[in-house]
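Hello,

Following up on my earlier ticket. Below are the two sequence lines again, exactly as submitted.
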Amino acid sequence: MRFTSEQRLDDGVLEREFTLGEIPGILWTPGSASAPAPLILLGHPGGLHKMYPRLAARARHCAAEGFAAATIELPGGGDRPRSAAAEQARADLHRALETGVPVDDEIVDRLVLPLVEKAVPEWRATLDALLSLPEIGGPVGYAGGVIAIGVRLAVVEPRISAAGLFAGSYVPRATFEEAREVTIPLHVLLQWDDEGNDRQAALDLFDAFGSKEKTLQANMGGHTGVPQFAGEDAHRFFTRHLK
Amino acid sequence: MRFTSEQRLDDGVLEREFTLGEIPGILWTPGSASAPAPLILLGHPGGLHKMYPRLAARARHCAAEGFAAATIELPGGGDRPRSAAAEQARADLHRALETGVPVDDEIVDRLVLPLVEKAVPEWRATLDALLSLPEIGGPVGYAGGVIAIGVRLAVVEPRISAAGLFAGSYVPRATFEEAREVTIPLHVLLQWDDEGNDRQAALDLFDAFGSKEKTLQANMGGHTGVPQFAGEDAHRFFTRHLK
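Thanks for your patience. The regenerated structure is below:
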């Protein structure tokens, strides 16, 4: 892990860009940390530059609660090399959406599963590097999308002790099976009136999770309109489980 | 409204039993209130004496947040006169449950609708009396079951500005229609693994509500196992809307 830039934000949060091999990422740490901070990994749908304002806002909220936060670019996202197969799957998805036919499971599998296969080892390598920093101490949470990546991480990465997931569409069939193996506490956000989202799939996935403590919070406000109090509830979830 | 007993609880909360005509009830007010307190009406499934420990715990939580809280006995509950029709409906319900046949909508209508017709005017008369007390100032919230009563109150009683409802089974068909007329902010709690509850009916009812701000929070823990943090979230909901 190599830090490539460093700036102190106006609320005292230290924001550092890094690269881990070919993978760009950002680490935010609280301004005044007396002890190693617990860490929240911020998931997103890819495109770090475009997502920066929302990620930075979430990270600063984390830092205000005493958490470090980090994110990395997804495989194929931003300036990272695209895979021809993923581009084809994306084109097939858009064609299905434009013609109004139901999106075939097979397209979803081609779009999401290779992403999970590549992204999860990258997140784990990032975790290795972050946990070697003296200012970060764990425990670790995962927050955000892509939900199939969050589910896989929750199953295979024992250092992740709690996950806050955004319920989204295009969940591969295999993810519903994997969800049964998840046992860590979960906080799932669902935008009830998100017309681009498959609500029933989100409810089925929530039902499938094997965790004894799982909370589904459904709110109004459309795809990007998660209410402020829902964000605060999610932070309280992490405070309960990571502190 | 006639107060029949008065005691100061160990946390300073003043608990007063009252009668309003034939209806027994309990009022809890914060120990140290400098201004008239907003009020939360505590709904329950009937049987004030049996429900007392849980109602008192909820009321003390309300008082700790600066709310007054009040409850009344349901028609036919506790020592109040039973109606032969309601008893017959209850017997028919139990017979259906014992034989494992699906509970007919017609039984639910006979069981719940007359209760709504009687209980809602009683709650409104109680509200008249409570709001005439100098220590209670409004605004007013309704919290708890019976959900069909909460829905009717939310539609017909303009003094109720927010409602926290427990999703329960045995929702009359008419209540789904009425739910569309509800416009006040709602916080709906659903115990996801409550085997005695019809989860799909709860989700359908949440979907039907006309409110622009509505939150569904689903948790694990069975019928009576609402997690502590869920109670705290519900109180934050009332604090957002009644203060």
